[in-house]
From TrEMBL:
Residues 20-127 form the HTH hxlR-type domain. It comes from Stenotrophomonas tumulicola. This is Helix-turn-helix transcriptional regulator. The keyword Aminoacyl-tRNA synthetase does not apply. Gene3D superfamilies: Winged helix-like DNA-binding domain superfamily/Winged helix DNA-binding domain. Pfam families: HxlR. GO terms for molecular function: DNA binding. Keywords: DNA-binding, Transcription, Transcription regulation.
Amino acid sequence: MAATSTHLEVPTDGLDRSACLGPDGSSELVSGVIGMIDGRWKLAILFRLFERPSWRTLELKRDLAGISQKVLTQQLRELEADRLIDRFDLGDKLPHVEYRLSRAGAELLPVLRSMRIFAALHQGNSIA
């Protein structure tokens, strides 16, 4: 009987498993993406940017009830460092900064929509 695998990238013939487990494997790459969106407010920020093309910092602060300015700034900087959003300084005399989804951030939308569908289908169910 042939060995089976529930992971499409894991060879079942005992050969090279780096496609899944190595430093450039599926597990490491997916963990990296999860790290990019991990944080109490990052998904909320991203979903707002999916909804509307650009937001000013103060608009985000008003819309995200309970977030402090310090945490908002930190989360925005991390999302920018991970290249999921772009920061545009449009300041004339007064500071005017807007945030928009980057190309990579826009490419993440279908993944997050799929995760939302999965969550809705399995809400309250144990996924073992």
